[in-house]
Model the fold of this input.
Amino acid sequence: MMRPGLPIASPGMTVGLLGGSFDPPHAGHVHITKEAIKAFALNRLWWLVSPGNPLKSRRPVPIAERLAAARVLMQNPRVQITDTENRLGTSMTADTLARLRAIYPGVCFVWLMGADNLAQIHRWRNWHFIMDTVPVGVLARPGDRISARMSPAARLYRYYRLSGHASQMLAHTEYHKQ
Done:
């Protein structure tokens, strides 16, 4: 059953999920959003503005301010700025993904992250669940490629890596549909 205030998605759609504190949202977020839509053939992309980041010591600006700033910055009809984690009562990516998959059966989600996050995802709670549950689209940022490729997650999941030519099929890969 759909919860009020959550984005709308239909079975068969490909939806990219870009999570983060967006404190503040910036041109880099916009750039990787546009690149992800093209590279991974996404129908929609949701910015999941999180209530906070457990790996950061500093508390973020209030979520209402970050949502408003993100909506001013990101002007694209395929992108929705959301407070989904706030509405679901989740704060960890694995929990959010589990809930979204239950609420949206048949939607092909792709978790999106910068290479800097791939380099440290092994510090996230239940990171194996994330990697095993949804395809992960990694967007390289200058200077992060080597550390990301040498990360524990990249080494462990190296056999699932798609070539750049195959990136548009990411949402439809079969290994994650358990």
In short: The chain has one domain: 14-172. The longest strand covers residues 14-20. The beta strands are 14-20, 44-49, 79-82, 108-114, 136-139. The chain has a mean pLDDT of 85.
